[in-house]
Amino acid sequence: MQGFARINKELAAFSGFENSEITATLDMDATLVATNKEDALFCYKGYKAYQPLNTWWFERGTIVHTEFRDGNVPAGFEQLRVFKEALNCLPEQVKKVRLRSDTAGYQHNLLKYYATGENRRFGVIEFAIGCDVTKEFKKAVEKVEESEWKPIYKTAYGKKYETGVEWAEVCYVPNAISHSKKGPEYRYIAKREVLDKQQKLPGMECQIALPFPTMDMKSQRYKVFGIVTNMDWEGERLVHWLHERCGKSEEAHGVMKDDLAGGKLPSEDFGENAAWWWIMILALNLNTMMKKLALEGSWCSKRMKAVRFSVIHLPGRVVERSRQLAIRLTRNHPSFELLVKVRKRIAMMKPIPCG
After folding, report:
1. For residue 123, which phi and psi values (nearest 5 degrees)?
2. Spatial separation of the C-alpha atoms in residues 41 and 50, rounded to whole Å
3. How far apart are CA 303 and CA 319, in angstroms?
4. Are 207 and 65 in contact (CB under 8 A)?
5. pTM
6. Which end of the chain is more exposed for a tag (fewer CB within 10 A), N or C?
């Protein structure tokens, strides 16, 4: 596993040599890989699974670190150690790190590490993390004046539209950090969304609780979400930025498990499955690098199925002659020009400096 991690670190360095990003936005998220393996353990959803914890680099679209875990391991287990390992995998040109996470990352030892600049290389790490909507947090939200709630808009086709969601600053200090005046100070934001009033069906008076926190304010029921951050961005911008985590990084989980067979584990042995998962991660990152550095353009957003159809699974004849290897495609093949451009771009790439 350490060997796979070193190879992946070298891949990140190569990708970074062709690109000059100095800021890395990391999204930490666990994903469930359902399985019927006899030795697999049950996850929190009630079925057998493994639960890898991945660290996604948003700007590059690659995985910088992963840890293959049993299904019963909580997503937040030893997250600080995993985060430190992920930081060590970043290329040298990265100077600033931002972090996004769901409520699994809402741990005060983690927040303190980010906010106090304990990391020697990156210093203070800016973050936006979903926080637990506890009774105390709800009490703080209830104290927010109605005039302080601001609407959240979305932009589509060059126009802004109201989403029906609002945000507000919340004056809240958790009990876990209230005992020290020298501790770091965080900024809490609440987001609320009106729930449509629906009449209860006959016989359904005792309905199952909703899978998300709710509150009653001003004779209206709301869906409530909390955010903790150390950033000074305007609230609406911060909410949109945090929600970007739910796009590409979670889409990548589908690519891992479906497109690249990460969800089809080959063995009942945990170690072999972990190696399979790491090989899939390397394939994912290589595929991303190929699309960005060699194919370019609209190819960057295409899934593996389209790449296989137009680039990989092409009918041709391999010819070896005069110590040369050639591939002959059918006459006027639509992918011929693309393959020639890809070969030229690969040949023009700069090598990694030694040392």
Report:
1. 70, -140
2. 7
3. 30
4. no
5. 0.85
6. C
The region, left, alpha or beta by phi > 0 then psi within -120 to 50, assigned to residue 30 is: beta
Q: Compute the distance between CA of residue 238 and CA of residue 235 in angstroms, rounded to an integer.
A: 5
Q: What tens digit of pLDDT does each residue of 211-250 get?
A: 778 888 877 888 899 999 999 999 999 999 998 887 666 7
Residues 264, 33: Cα–Cα separation, whole Å: 9
Could you give phi then psi for residue 318, rounded to 5 degrees? -90, 125
Q: Could you write out the DSSP letters of every residue in 124-141?
A: S-EEEEEE---HHHHHHH
Any idea what DSSP says for residue 172? -
Q: What is the DSSP string of 157-171?
A: TTEEEEEEEEEEEE-
Of 252, 249, 306, 319, nearest to 283 by C-alpha is 252
CA quadruple 117, 8, 3, 304: dihedral positive or negative? positive
pLDDT digits (tens, 9 = 90+) for 60-82: 889 999 999 999 999 889 999 99
User: Among 126, 129, 115, 229, which residue's Cα sits nearest to residue 170?
Assistant: 229
pLDDT in tens, 152-208: 998 888 888 888 899 999 998 877 666 566 777 889 999 998 887 555 556 555 555
Secondary-structure class of domain 2-188+228-296 per CATH = alpha beta
DSSP-assigned letter for residue 26: E
The per-residue pLDDT of the chain, averaged, comes to 86
Using CA atoms, how far apart are residues 284 and 290, in angstroms rounded to an integer? 10
Q: How far apart are CA 70 and CA 47, in angstroms?
A: 12
Domain(s) of CATH 3.90.350: residues in the chain: 2-188+228-296
Structure confidence at residue 327 as a pLDDT band (50, 70, 90): confident
